[in-house]
């Protein structure tokens, strides 16, 4: 009896739910029924999945239930990541104004992008920033992890203290350190702030970012170090290995997967650096002669350059083209880094 009822009720709910979703979308495009289209869309989705759940089949019922439970996550991911990515790629080939586009311009935005010296400079200093941070943050984080796992008195206090800067927002952190650099840490030769010159300003951003992010990486290294079996360390000690040999021959090889994770996190995070760069210098800093041009944005990294292009200069199509290029760079570099790290991990 239940099977017969399901056979009758399931298609009705499926059709009704699909119809309500379609009608709500039509109302949205038509700009009418603003107070009804939202509730109708939600109810339509729920009714559709209720009909899907009641679909009379034993073979695929478990898979249907899995899809229903995964749908909120998959839908959110599609709406916030997949669909904007696809639309962004499409908009990069148009004259999009942030609201609508009038024509397709092809590769014009991409050609304009590569003719801009400020954009090329932002790519260059972003790579410099990434390399410096990827090396220094992992080094500092690993050393702090060794300190906190060495049995030192007050180890918990040190862990909390080193991680605390990571809890401060990048904008707030940038303004705090801007005050420090302008009033406390100054160039003793001519009494000028580090932020006044592009070279020292970039180094200042690196210092602030290491101070903020090293504590987070430290916790990951601590997890890896504490998972090393104690009998392995004891065996190394019995065999006469000194602390340096134990570190390089035992501990580091055994946390190779942790090193891969930390390297990947620091790589992607440094590439996407925006808030500290904006709050600390807002990209300011002079470059006398780059590609035959004088630049006034010597510390403007790639993410900030994209933001200024789209928001400050109100050129959304060009900003979107830069964002697509940024995505390609990040994807390629991340894949290469993971492949190389995994290869080294296997060798270790």
Question: Can you describe what's shown?
Answer:
With 348 residues, this protein is mostly helical. Helix content is 73%, strand content 3%. The chain folds into two domains: 2-108, no CATH class; 111-347, MetI-like fold (Orthogonal Bundle), CATH 1.10.3720. A two-stranded antiparallel ribbon has the order 1-2. It has a two-stranded antiparallel sheet with strand order 3-4. A hairpin with a 2-residue loop joins strand 3 (287-290) and strand 4 (293-295). Helix 8 (198-226) runs antiparallel to helix 11 (256-271). The radius of gyration is 27 Å and the shape is flat. The model has no long low-confidence stretch (mean pLDDT 83).
Q: What is the level 1 CATH name of the largest domain?
A: Mainly Alpha
Largest sheet: 2 strands, antiparallel
Count up the helices: 14
What is the number of strand segments? Answer: 4
Q: Supply the CATH architecture of the largest domain.
A: Orthogonal Bundle
Task: Estimate the helix proportion, in percent.
Answer: over 70%
> Please, how many domains?
2
Keywords:
348 residues; mainly alpha; MetI-like fold; 2 domains; 3% strand
What topology does this entry show?
Elements: H1 2-30, H2 37-53, H3 61-91, H4 108-114, H5 117-148, H6 155-163, H7 170-183, E1 186-187, E2 192-193, H8 198-226, H9 230-238, H10 243-254, H11 256-271, H12 275-280, E3 287-290, E4 293-295, H13 302-312, H14 316-347
Antiparallel strand pairs: 1-2, 3-4
Helix pairs in contact: 1-2, 3-14, 4-14, 5-6, 5-8, 5-11, 6-8, 8-11, 11-14, 13-14
